[in-house]
Design goal:
Layout (H helix, E strand, L loop, with lengths): L1 E2 L2 E2 H11 L6 E8 L5 E7 L3 E6 L12 H11 L9 E5 L9 E5 L17 H20 L16 H16 L5 H12 L10 E3 L8 E5 L2 E6 L6 E3 L1 H11 L26 H12 L6 H24 L14 H15 L3
Helix pairs in contact: 3-7, 4-8, 5-8, 5-9, 6-8, 8-9
């Protein structure tokens, strides 16, 4: 059996030794080539499990950390935050060429476009978008020390380190000059919030609807996935990036950024301002500096997209639609500047 990123014979042998309760694996198929980690469905004689591994080719240091994903879903399993069941972790690269982990299959779908929410009515879709804000607040409300994540990150100076980290990632990926990038970095450095501005929480690092698994009817978020960039830090950084992904009606420029789809345009879905307000209501957090966090979200997404574009140039992406992604980088940088000028839309 030949599937990109999987050594089938070695995987079967490893699962037979480490996950014998699942039964003998009988098939594997790619669920999502992803613009990040690769996700596969592994069918066994007794159950379905999902395998997650890093992407092929160009991988930025500290990104695509399978042990990090594994640790956080293991810690959150059984808390109010919905996550898949952790099944097994493999640190040895010799098995399939990279570390990977197995998690339980969840009967839900990653919803990326508004057509996928055409069955529920506007009232149900509105409730789903409210749940998206509420689950984010639940992530930020987790007592991370109590679930064993007290050493999962360094909350002090989080935003300063984040800015420097993503600047380093840009230098590793970019092979073109973007004048707006240097100016944006200078503006973000000048606006960094104080360390005491927001109490540290667990942060997801890439929170949006298509990084959850959704039951369509009635709509509900069954699991939050893609925890590769999770850490301890400023919860408003999560909110800012989520709003960066948002596509509001009339925002034609956002339609040119091929990340996260147009699901927020579904009838009934909260707009960005309504989502932020609902998050503020259920979390009790002050959103006075939200413009900084949304601008930072655009900056971070620009760096992530540049990394994906680098893998595409190397021919190391799996799936379709990567040829247009590099053009989104200057657009994201420009949107960050406008947010700092005018505030979040």
């Amino acid at each position: 059996m030949t599937v990109p990123g999987i050594d089938w014979a070695r995987l079967v042998a490893w699962m037979g030794e480490h996950v014998p309760s699942a039964g003998e694996p009988v098939s594997v198929s790619l669920i999502s080539g992803g613009r990040s980690n690769l996700t596969y469905l592994v069918e066994t004689a007794r159950r379905s499990v999902v395998l997650r591994r890093p992407p092929l080719g160009h991988v930025l240091p500290t990104a695509h950390d399978m042990r990090r994903e594994w640790r956080v879903i293991s810690a959150l399993h059984g808390t109010p935050v919905p996550v898949p069941e952790p099944v097994a972790f493999c640190a040895e690269e010799e098995v399939i060429g990279a570390p990977f982990y197995l998690m339980g299959y969840v009967e839900g779908a990653a919803v990326r476009n508004r057509q996928e929410l055409s069955t529920p009515g506007p009232e149900e879709t509105r409730r789903l978008s409210q749940r998206l804000a509420e689950v984010l607040a639940e992530i930020h409300a987790v007592d991370y020390r109590a679930v064993g994540l007290g050493d999962f990150g360094r909350p002090d100076g989080y935003m300063t380190r984040q800015l420097e980290r993503w600047c380093q990632q840009w230098e590793r990926s970019a092979d073109r000059h973007e004048p707006a990038y240097d100016a944006l970095v200078a503006r973000l450095r000048a606006r960094l919030p104080s360390a005491s501005a927001s109490a540290a929480t667990l942060v997801h690092g890439d929170y949006r609807l298509d990084n959850t698994l959704v039951r369509p009817d009635p709509p509900e978020i069954l699991a939050v996935v893609d925890w590769e960039m999770s850490t301890l830090g400023d919860p408003l950084a999560d909110l800012g990036l989520t709003l960066t992904y948002w596509h509001d009606p009339g925002d034609e420029e956002r339609a040119s950024i091929p990340v996260a789809g147009d699901v927020t345009l579904a009838p009934g879905f909260l707009n960005a301002a309504e989502f932020a307000a609902h998050y503020a209501k259920v979390s009790g957090r002050d959103l006075g500096d939200l413009d900084f966090y949304v601008a930072f979200g655009n900056f971070k997404l620009a760096v992530i997209v540049e990394g994906i574009h680098a893998r595409f140039r190397q021919g190391k992406t799996v799936g379709d639609g990567f040829e247009r992604i590099g053009a989104a980088v200057p657009t994201l940088l420009a949107r960050a500047h406008r947010t700092l000028d005018d505030g979040p839309a």
